[in-house]
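Let's study today's protein:

:::
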Amino acid sequence: MNASTTTVQRLMLEFAALTGLEPAGEVRRYLWTDAFAVCNFLELFRVTANPFFLEEALRLVDQVHQTLGRHRDDDTRTGWISGLKDEEAERHPTRGGLRIGKELSERRGDERPDERKEWDRDGQYYHYLTKWMHALRRVAAATGDERYTRWGVELAETVHARFCYDPEWGGARRIYWKMSIDLSRPLVPSMGMHDPLDGLVSYCELQEAARSYGLDLLKPEAAELVAICRGQRWETDDPLGIGGLLWDAGRIIQLMIKGAFPEPGFLDRVLQAAIAGLEMFEEAGMLRHPAVFRLPFRELGLGIGLKGLPALLDRTAEHPDLFDRNGLVAARLNALLGFLPMAERIDDFWMDGTNSRARTWSDHREINMVMLATSLAPETFLLV
């Protein structure tokens, strides 16, 4: 076992203990962190062949569904948020979506919005739900159990039907950024910059998996997201946003090789946006700041995306007829590879004991730990 695997194992066992996964304790589930954690446990299983880590991944999936698929303990409502009875809900645990897992209850319908407080309130986030779709697909691939793909598809169907809407002023459909726990009303009506792209790639990932079972699913949902994406710009200087673009670029390339992505032209747009974002981020000099002014999980998200670039260059080189008739894809990927040293700088900075004592680490300890683990061993997370 190499040093990186040992560190990832330590981080994930500590995460399991902190959140009540192993050994059993007070359960604290948070959907974004748990999606990455599932992939990390699967990666440890792949590398070590120790069945304990596969069991942890499956236990975490079950705990997420049993916790975030139900109403909060401090809610007057009880049971599954889907409204299904227990036996039916156990068979379809994602039919009502999944709560974020925030500390505070969601804003009441008669309560005025408070932008600062909203960050700490529960509800459902579209971009967290797409991460869980991906995690379920990785579990299905690792186990050969098609239930996990079916649960991902059911989640996509529910989420798309509730989050996507036609704006009153006309034009293309849009996606609410945040909705109430029961998906009856928007809590934050604005649309995330990359939500339509991330949704499209996640739906295509599930579509490709479902076809192997002889099913043709999510076609109208994917077509609607293609239409939304056509009118969007994706450039951002946010490191986590850039990382997300790189994750999606990697999945698009893998899906294109399988003939499972409907808009190949999106790949060049995504790569261009990632290059522009990295140039802005580098110029801002954020990696020169002390830990107290930096958010580790956002930087680690960028590192995860950068770590996948060498494999993307290899995959596209193996299929020149598909990707590189004019040399553009290779040129974009080589430009991105120039930023790869950033990933090691980010890992080294946050593995330094002095920096990990900063409040920016301790205030978000679990998400930081898990995303550091993903950055150190990103292979399973980056797969389709």
